[in-house]
Amino acid sequence: MERDLSTRWINPAVINEEIWPGAKGYPWANTGARLWTREGLLRRTGKNNLVATWTTGGFSEPADGNFTMIATSDDNGKSWSDAGRFQHPHHGLFTTELFSPAEGEIHAFLETYRFGEWMTGHRSYRVISVDHGKTWSTPNSIPGGVDNVWVNRGITLASGRWVLPVSWPEHCGAEWGYPSNGRSVQECLIGNRHGRHLELPAGSDSNLVYQAGCEWAHRNHRYCCGVLISDDHGQSFRRCGYLKSGEQGHLIEPRVVELGDGQIIMLLRSMDENWLWRSESTDGGDKWSPAVRSDIPNPSAKVNILKAADGRIFLIHNPTGGECDGGKFAMNARNPLSLWVSNDGMKSWSVKVDLVKDSAPYASLNYPDGYIDEANGLIDLVWEDTFSVYRMQIPMSLR
Questions:
Q1: Quick check: 274 pLDDT over 80?
Q2: Deepest of 53, 315, 344, 347, by most Cβ within 10 A of its Cβ?
């Protein structure tokens, strides 16, 4: 399936190449299914070793058919090898973080869920590779009793502590169970009281179930953020922080960065308005200040924040939202994808430059994720446009 990308502009200072699905197109394109991809991840695990993942499968996400594809490279990304999948036999699956604390070592965090629940009943797992992503351990629970968190990009503090930001859903509404497709197996009862429960027409199609599940999840849950902390190289974790934006506000997909003075800054995606939120910790992540709205516009999209050895902070994100459209929520405005740079601990941004722009209506330039390649002076990341995964190399000196 050939796509028209004539509306797209790529900054000439960057190197951008498609790594999935490539020139041959989707291997299942003739089926009409799985013609989407989401949330690529990229990590360096050795001098020439890279690991990349992205999620696809099913008709969209979150659905029971979702799985994650794995690719490895031993030549700095000149070529990629198919390294298999993370795929659950019954549930949908997303890979949300590749944490690489040592050469060759990767801790992949997986989330599984059922279609219709909109990730409100997800389970958390970890798998470990010690050979640059070529083989993996069996998925096990995150040690420490942490079971329903969405793990995001972690960092290792100067002290050696691991800090991995997380979000999770809390049920707080009147409807206990997610919508049923047809008659429920049994009534919803709380003592002698009949609980509210939505029954869809029997045989409802996936789009109706998907929409009803999303609406049920957002009516009846709040999404909160915090961090997982490990002081023993991942043998155990504990959850700290409880950040939320109101009784039923939704904060998800937090990102963290450690400043030179040891302070940790967290930026959080809001699902209710067009700004990033912010929290701070001065004790290594144990306690966090209440989340407040920042002055960084955001169209409810995940961002990537990285710190260079010289202290510069690099924010790769969609700087749209804010008061656009009269202040209305603008989740479809993930365009352009831009780089902001701070030289003063995120007090100000001295560089603001676009990386990718697209003039097509509702173009989505999504979910940048990667690392800083100090040896070559590059920010190395992957991003996607819902259909393809791209690798982009950005000079750290870009202005």
A1: yes
A2: 53
